[in-house]
C-alpha cells in the first residue's frame, strides 16, 4: 500500500507520517515544499493539472492531507486552507480517483457553541474568523469532491512538536525561557475559555485508522478529547511540569483574538468511535509530558 502524506514537516503531519510508517507492508511518500520531500508540492500555488501529473506518477492508494496554515493574513489562510484542498481534490479526481483522501480539518469550523454542549458533526458551522472559515471551505471542497474522502475535524492538539504559534507551544517556550526565577512573571491573556484538548498521537492514530478502514466513511468525523477543559488547566499543568516558581498573570489581553470569540469548545466523538473504533487514549497530563520531553526538558 502506498500512502502519500502532505504537510509531513508540520506539527500533526510529522505525527501522522510516523504512525503510518509503523504499518506493515506500507510505503509512505511525503509531499510538500521541503527539498527533502519525495514529491515537491505547494498546494497554495500549484495548478491542478501539474499536481495531477505528480500524483499519477506516485500512484497512491491513499492520501492524507495535513497541510494547513494556522496563522497569517486572510489571503495566506485562504490559499493554504481553502484553495489547497480544492486543488488536491481536483488533481485526485484526474490522477487517482480511487484513492482514499483523509483531510485534517478543525473544530474551529463550528465557531461559538453553547456552554455545556458537545457538538456533533451535524451541528451548524459558524466560524468566528478567517481561520475557521478557510478550514470550513477546505472541508466543503473535500466532502463535495465525490472522492472516497473523510475530514477529521480536530480539536485543540497538544503534544510533542507543538509550534510556538499555538498556546501550548508558546507557553512551553515561555516557561523554558523563564527557568526557575521566582520573580518571573508569565503574562498571558484571559485563560477562562474551555477547549477540547486532544493528544497529537491520538490524532495520528485516528488518521491511520481512517486510511485503513474498510468501506466508505462518514464525510466528517470529530477527533477530540471528548471533554472541555479550562485553558487555565493546560497552563497550570505546563507550569507544574516545568517547575515554574513564578507568577502567571491573566492580563485580559494579548491572547488570540480568534480564541477570545469562542468561550466553549467541546466535540462529540461518538461517530469516530463507531466508524473507526477510535477513542483518545492519552490524558492531558501525558500530552504535557510529551511536549516537555520534546523540548528537551523532562516533565517534573
From TrEMBL:
Please give the InterPro entries that the UniProt record associates with this protein: Epimerase_deHydtase, NAD(P)-bd_dom_sf
According to the record, the signal peptide region is none
Q: Which branch of life, at top level?
A: Bacteria
User: Tell me, what's a Pfam family for it?
Assistant: Epimerase
Please report the stretch or stretches of sequence annotated as the NAD-dependent epimerase/dehydratase domain. 3-224
Q: Which family does the similarity line name?
A: Belongs to the NAD(P)-dependent epimerase/dehydratase family.
This protein's name: NAD(P)-dependent oxidoreductase
Protein's organism? Streptomyces chartreusis
